[in-house]
Prior knowledge:
Strand content: over 45%
Number of helices: 2
CATH class: Mainly Beta
Structural class: mainly beta
Radius of gyration: 18 Å
Oligomer: single chain
Bound molecules: manganese (II) ion
Order of helices and strands: EEEEEEEEEEHEEEEEEEEEEEEEEEEH
Shape: globular
Distance between the termini: 53 Å
Strand order of the largest sheet: 1-22-19-24-17-14-13
Largest sheet: 7 strands, antiparallel
CATH architecture: Sandwich
Amino acid sequence: xxxxxxxxxxxxxxxxxxxxxxxxxxxxxxxxxxxxxxxxxxxxxxxxxxxxxxxxxxxxxxxxxxxxxxxxxxxxxxxxxxxxxxxxxxxxxxxxxxxxxxxxxxxxxxxxxxxxxxxxxxxxxxxxxxxxxxxxxxxxxxxxxxxxxxxxxxxxxxxxxxxxxxxxxxxxxxxxxxxxxxxxxxxxxxxxxxxxxxxxxxxxxxxxxxxxxxxxxxxxxxxxxxxxxxxxxxxxxxxxxxxxxxxxxxxxxxxxxxxxxxxxxxxxxxxxxxxxxxxxxxxxxxx
Length: 287
Ligand code: MN
């Protein structure tokens, strides 16, 4: 049975995160304002292709805390660097993913990689906040850096499905997760179509990274987000041109959400605790 289209959402007006990330927020502030609608995915910030001029100073976001969830950065164009107070650091480029589990709390900073900053160029990226089930919110931080070549690969006539997390058929994604979810990059050649099956109850959407697709006779152009109803399991997309789609599908957590700045917890008292712990230096140290 067809997983019914709910709506196609154009990119909300962009805003700057720090001075390096010009993002469209599709949820929870932009097109989808219900905090539970895409659970376990809580936030989707999309830096659509934007040309940054050369800069001697690396643009980005300086040291800030997180608790209670995971930040997942997917690079499409340009390079991003990361450092955190758990001692992890890395640089990701085109097709790579940084999957940082903040959990009980880290400080980190995120910015354009040095050479990319100096040369300037087109920057395109996604940042997701993946919520953690209550029982894992205070576990230890973790950092997974996943290069493009490590993704699960499901090849078919006319395209490639890269599995970042979860699985598709026999292809498994390298990212370890705390709740059942799938994150894929689907690459389709012009005129080709692909049908995928996703569980009915999983909250499901796709972001058109490049190109354009038709879905149930509706056109989804580049930089648009396609939201599906929780009805049916089967999605067919047909590429009008060479296309890349980011596909998100996950089992809802069904737990209360209290969000405050960089903290994502279940109860207000836990937010107060996070603020207190942050003020007392319990998130570690990062220059
Ligand atoms: Mn951050």
